[in-house]
């Protein structure tokens, strides 16, 4: 990644004003006892910089993005890799990889298009507690 040291922990880039996305981040935090995952909202300066350096479309605010091992994943691939990274029973979600990506991503995009209507959004990005702040970049 040009001009920036590659993150050593997997980084989840998420829509910081989306209630569904914020809930997903809180879910990951609760189920990640080793605190492996780091987070940044897509709208944050860190999120914008990572997207730019990875060559991710600047308008890609409707997908969760996972940056891990020098690569990035989006949509259903990101969700499945995050689940696998949580370990334990969440690894079972990986069986969904047997479903063709085109179908998985179609379902993902349908939910993404409707997320604000179904789950709402906030005016500002969620602010983590002081205890969690070290897991958020930027």
Write the layout of secondary structure elements.
Blueprint: E1 11-14, H1 19-30, E2 38-41, H2 45-54, E3 65-68, E4 71-74, H3 75-86, H4 101-119
Parallel strand pairs: 1-2
Antiparallel strand pairs: 1-3, 3-4
The radius of gyration computed from the alpha-carbon positions, rounded to a whole number of angstroms, is 14 Å
Helix percent band: 25-40%
- Measured distance between first and last alpha carbons: 17 Å
Strand order of the largest sheet: 2-1-3-4
Q: Give the number of helices.
A: 4
Major sheet attributes? 4 strands, mixed
Note poorly predicted spans.
Answer: 1-5
Global mean pLDDT: 86
- How many E strands? 4
The ordered string of helix (H) and strand (E) elements is EHEHEEHH
Count of structural domains:
1
* General form: globular
What proportion of the residues form beta strands (DSSP E)? Answer: 5-15%
Which structural class do you get from the secondary structure elements?
A: alpha+beta
